[in-house]
Amino acid sequence: MLGCTNRPDNFLSLIRSMSVLNFLFLLLSCVQVLSCNKLDRDSLLSFHKHISSPPSDIPLNWSSTNCCIWEGITCNSKSRVTHLSLSGKGFSGTITPFLGNLTSLSYLNLSHNQFSGPLPFALFHTLSNLESLDLSYNLLYASQNHGLPVSIQTVDLSSNRFNGSINSSFFHGASSLISFNVSNNSFSGPLPSSICITSSFVKILDFSMNKFSGNISQGIGRCSKLEVFRAGLNSLSGWLPYDIYSVKTLSEISLPENYFSGPVNNSIVLLSNLSIIDLHGNELTGEVPTDIGLLSNLKQLILHTNSLNGSVPPSLMNCTSLKTLLLRNNHLGGKISSLDFSKLKELETIDFGNNSFVGNIPVRLCFCKSLSAVRLAYNHLEGEIPSCVAVLKSLSHLSLANNNLSDVVGALKILANCHNLSVLFLTNCFRDEPVRDNYSLLHLTGFQNLQILSLSGCQLKCEVPSWIGKLKKLRGLDLSYNQMTGTIPKWLGSMPRLFALDLTGNHLSGELPPEIGSLKALIAANADSNLYYLALPFLYGILEYDRLFYLPRGIKVGNNILSGNIPAELGQLTRLRVLDLSDNNFSGCIPSELSNLVNLEKMNLSANNLSCEIPESLTRLNFMSFFSVKNNDLQGEIPKGGQFDTFPNTSFEGNPKLLRRSFVGSRVDILLLVTAAKEPETLWHSLPFWLGYLVGFFLVGVSFLFNGS
Ligand SMILES: *[C@@H]1O[C@H](CO)[C@@H](O)[C@H](O)[C@H]1NC(C)=O
Ligand SMILES: *[C@@H]1O[C@H](CO)[C@@H](O)[C@H](O)[C@H]1NC(C)=O
Ligand SMILES: *[C@@H]1O[C@H](CO)[C@@H](O)[C@H](O)[C@H]1NC(C)=O
Ligand SMILES: *[C@@H]1O[C@H](CO)[C@@H](O)[C@H](O)[C@H]1NC(C)=O
Ligand SMILES: *[C@@H]1O[C@H](CO)[C@@H](O)[C@H](O)[C@H]1NC(C)=O
Ligand SMILES: *[C@@H]1O[C@H](CO)[C@@H](O)[C@H](O)[C@H]1NC(C)=O
Ligand SMILES: *[C@@H]1O[C@H](CO)[C@@H](O)[C@H](O)[C@H]1NC(C)=O
Ligand SMILES: *[C@@H]1O[C@H](CO)[C@@H](O)[C@H](O)[C@H]1NC(C)=O
Ligand SMILES: *[C@@H]1O[C@H](CO)[C@@H](O)[C@H](O)[C@H]1NC(C)=O
Ligand SMILES: *[C@@H]1O[C@H](CO)[C@@H](O)[C@H](O)[C@H]1NC(C)=O
Ligand SMILES: *[C@@H]1O[C@H](CO)[C@@H](O)[C@H](O)[C@H]1NC(C)=O
Ligand SMILES: *[C@@H]1O[C@H](CO)[C@@H](O)[C@H](O)[C@H]1NC(C)=O
User: Fold this and answer.
1) Could you tell me whether strands 51-52 and 92-93 are parallel, antiparallel, or unpaired per DSSP bridges?
2) Mean pLDDT, range 389-400, rounded to an integer
3) Backbone angles phi, psi at 212, to 5 degrees
């Protein structure tokens, strides 16, 4: 009855042309009366023949005579099929040219399936009523492309395997085209910028994530209704085409991660509806357009990772809708304190990192009450953190690393009030200033939501402050390269979420407390079940990981004056990936329990006073790619097998009593003194390795696991 009740007009016209008897008959078997066009039914059945449902699902039941009531089908009053909609059903198979017989079809949606093989474009020849085509998220590729049907308005071929080039004849006749999305395919060749010669209604063009290359030639300028233009993540180059600056209707230009060069023409400010400009990851030069402030609808200005120079135009501070402002990794400079941010009430994310800005942190940034992420790292800023920063209650990420600020204690007292702060990088931020007020530094309160804290290279001359122990959410703590004294506190071991600890390069003494072996977040059995995917917006692109979850789990206490035995309890930390105890005074044996650290990738025990043999069981550590016990007092033979067969001699040198067993052929075992590596020649050979190692550790060490924050 569905076919009847759904269409009252159709129903009435039927009544009019029928006798009462016929009408009664209709009521009894309306399904048959409305039964679909035979040609449509046949072509649907032939389509059906070529597809299969996933085994777990009930197969498509297209068995009754009336195809108009089949799942996914809609007919018009003439019983012709107008809609075929089978999105997300898990179908696989191919798309047959027989669909071309559904000549009344206006809507075809087969998105989110597993259709594969070549799409027979020829079928569109006959689909002269097709308005909407959605084949996104399948595995289709192009056969000869014959061009789009004349009636087409919306085309979504995104997320497939289409390849080859799109030439202008593809759009020939498609004079009603409004939206064209081919993102996430493998199209190559030039961008078909002549698209609007025939299709002057185009509003949406998405070419992103393909292999389009070369310059964008003139043509887009004809798209006088274009609102969204995306072609990011291709290999496009040359200057941005001039005629793009004449498309007044544009609200989004997203062309990131290409090879565009040259300047952004100041004429861009005439596109008054622009709300998104994303040109990051190109080779753009010149300055940020001076009159950018005319773009009063601008919400996102994303120009990071280019070669822009000059200063930030003061007019930008007139873009009161701005939410996202990313300018990192350019050659921008100028006095940041002269910028008046006070009108940017909507601003959420600002990244000026890795430029050459000078001056103080602008006080007027405090007017931007919506700020949640601020990164001014790697500039030449001076002065103190303004106390008004404490009012930024939404602030969750702050990185000021590598500047020349002063008063670390004052800074921490202010920031402790930012209740939502979860990531704080002050790495190398207070480089030249000895800390005077140690009492305040040791007695802070606040920071209850901190998840990552880096105070590396901040000239701290005190004990590890006990307030840190109250930060129940802390997962990463970097206090490396300070002058901290005293012992490593036992309470660190009871921090419920801590999984990355870096105390490298301090003056810490005493034993490594066995309690460190109880760090819950490093013990598989107790591991925190939620996958804390805290986004790290500013790390992305510089490091491989953009989620806190991906930070390497590590304990690094190298370059201190720690002594005593290596606690066997460390063996409980089965999720540990980096263990660095180098350059200390550890003595005794290497506990064989360390061979329980099945996820360990790096173990550095070099430059200590360790004696005894290297436990054979360490060969079980299959992921260990770096191992060093250099400069100790180990003896016996170096274990054989597993990763140990890949470690270079330099991993073991400086242990006069350590022997390397070497198999010559299969007959004789010769014991070689590893100290043979002290011969000048060999020493020089090992130098590049050591340099690499030092540089590697410097990078990881200096700014912890989050270098470049
Ligand atoms: C398919 O649908 C028809 C009615 O449209 C029904 O009679 C038949 O039992 C269904 N078949 C299966 C296998 O579900
Ligand atoms: C349906 O389309 C196919 C392919 O275009 C064609 O070969 C076939 O003759 C058509 N079927 C009918 C019944 O017209
Ligand atoms: C296709 O169907 C999916 C799922 O129903 C829907 O999300 C999508 O918007 C449809 N596409 C078009 C162009 O209507
Ligand atoms: C194009 O399709 C992709 C999905 O494959 C989608 O993410 C994107 O938003 C679409 N582009 C536009 C402009 O709607
Ligand atoms: C790109 O397409 C592939 C395959 O269809 C899909 O798995 C992936 O999610 C798509 N990527 C994006 C960003 O849409
Ligand atoms: C497109 O992909 C198909 C299937 O992978 C391949 O056979 C064909 O040669 C490709 N065409 C071009 C122009 O790369
Ligand atoms: C464009 O495609 C059509 C149809 O596939 C083909 O005949 C024509 O030669 C192509 N033109 C260019 C310039 O590649
Ligand atoms: C691409 O554009 C650049 C600058 O706009 C120009 O120097 C170059 O000749 C162009 N290349 C081609 C192939 O048109
Ligand atoms: C700008 O956008 C508004 C609202 O979306 C629209 O009404 C107006 O026509 C657009 N102006 C231009 C020049 O496209
Ligand atoms: C900006 O574009 C205009 C044409 O729209 C052109 O005349 C001018 O030279 C361009 N300026 C720069 C700096 O490229
Ligand atoms: C910016 O770079 C251009 C060359 O790309 C140069 O001509 C110009 O003088 C530079 N401007 C500033 C302010 O450094
Ligand atoms: C900002 O806008 C105001 C009012 O529209 C205007 O008077 C001022 O000159 C603009 N400032 C800049 C730097 O463009």
Assistant:
1) antiparallel
2) 92
3) -60, 145
| pLDDT average, residue stretch 226-252 | 96
Residue-wise pLDDT tens digits, 458-482: 989 899 999 999 999 998 899 999 9
Cα–Cα separations (whole angstroms), residue 164 to 36, 60, 142, 161, 405 = 38, 33, 8, 10, 54
User: Which atom of ligand 12 lies closest to the CA of 291?
Assistant: 14
Q: Ligand 9: does its nearest atom lie under 6 Å from the Cβ of 248?
A: yes
Let me know: does 548 contact 476? Beta carbons within 8 Å. yes
As a whole number of angstroms, the distance between CA 35 and CA 529 comes to 56
How many other β-carbons are positioned within 10 Å of the β-carbon of residue 303?
23
**How many degrees, rounded to 5, is the angle at CA 705 between CA 701 and CA 709?**
105
Nearest CA to ligand 6 atom 1: 163
Nearest to 281 by CA among 348, 228, 235, 214: 235
d(CA 505, CA 487): 14
In the structure, which protein residues have their CB atom closer than 6 angstroms to any atom of ligand 5? 137, 159, 184
Q: Is the Cα torsion angle 697, 698, 699, 705 positive or negative in sign?
A: positive
Average pLDDT over residues 132-141: 96
Distance 317 CA to ligand 12 centre (A): 9
- Atom 9 in ligand 8: which residue has the minimum CA distance? 238
pLDDT tens figures, 104-122: 999 999 999 999 999 988 8
215 Cβ below 6 A of ligand 8: yes
How far does the centroid of ligand 12 lie from the alpha carbon of residue 291, in Å?
Answer: 10
Residue that the structure tokens 């060749």 belong to: 189
Whole-number Å distance between alpha carbons of 135 and 140: 8
Instruction: Identify which of 39, 42, 96, 98 to mutate to test ligand 2's pocket (most ligand atoms within 8 A of the CB).
Output: 98
pLDDT number for residue 471? 95
Query: What's the confidence (pLDDT) of residue 683?
Result: 29
What is the distance in A from the centroid of ligand 1 to the CA of 63? 7
Q: How many residues does the chain have?
A: 709
Q: Which of 171-175, 366-370, 399-403, 632-636 has the lowest mean pLDDT?
A: 171-175
Ordered DSSP codes for 521-536: GGSGGG--SS----B-
**Which of 477-491, 618-632, 675-689 is least confident?**
675-689
**Rounded Cα distance, 46 and 186, in Å:** 29
Ligand 8 centroid to 221 CA: how many Å?
18
CA–centroid distance for 630 within its chain: 38
Cα–Cα dist 223/195, whole Å: 8
Find the mean pLDDT for residues 481-490.
95
Please write the tens of the pLDDT for every residue from 507-533: 999 999 999 999 998 997 555 545 444
As a whole number of angstroms, the distance between CA 352 and CA 380 comes to 11
Residue type, 400: L
* Rounded CA separation 96/78 (Å): 24
Give the pair of three-digit tokens for residue 255: 């062309």
| Helix or strand run (H / E) with residue 635 | strand 635-637
Beta bridge mates, 667 = none
Q: How far apart are CA 215 and CA 237, in angstroms?
A: 5
pTM assigned to the model: 0.85
Closest ligand, as measured to the CA of 287: 11
Give the contacts of 548 (CB within 8 A, at least 6 positions apart).
Answer: 423, 451, 452, 475, 476, 532, 533, 534, 535, 536
d(CA 404, CA 391): 23
For residue 444, which amino acid is it? L
> How do beta strands 228-230 and 252-254 pair?
parallel
Residue type (1 letter), 453: L
DSSP states of 27-43 as a string? Answer: HHSHHHHTPPPHHHHHH
| Band (125; pLDDT cuts 50, 70, 90) | confident
- Distance from the CA of 262 to the center of ligand 11, in angstroms? 11
pLDDT digits (tens, 9 = 90+) for 24-61: 444 444 444 457 889 999 999 999 999 888 877 778 88
